[in-house]
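JOB MANIFEST
job_type = single_chain_structure
chain_count = 1
residues = 137
[input]
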Amino acid sequence: MIEIAEQSGVNVVFADFGEHKEKVAGYCDFRSSRLYVNHEERRVRQNFTIAHELGHWLLHKDLFENDPDKHVVLPRFSKPDTNDPLELEANTFAANLLVPDRLLRPVASGFVQIKTLMRLFDVSRTMMEWRLWELRQ
């Protein structure tokens, strides 16, 4: 994820969020071209944060550069805001970047355990369950 982000023009910085470390997974600073990730998160969460914020970087950069107040930090422990189309788009981007259909379909038979798929794609159970659900729709 780091290499993909950096090849897309944004620098990934693992940061200590101090008193906010329990609340913030990460955020993208569009003016400095930096994506900040909570250094205390598990790697699979860091990967999701990078992919999610990269989605904002690639899809919403112009919008957020013109109005920085529209972009909020990615919280650590909350359900996604299903009313915000920009967050939904960034989450969908992240899910498809981390677990692309073309790689998931061949291995997503009913005989493969979800833990095996989680390890194969290096993602959380939540992410894998979501992608499998999407694949079957």
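[summary]
DSSP finds six helices and four strands in the chain.
The two ends are 27 Å apart (CA to CA).
exit_status = 0
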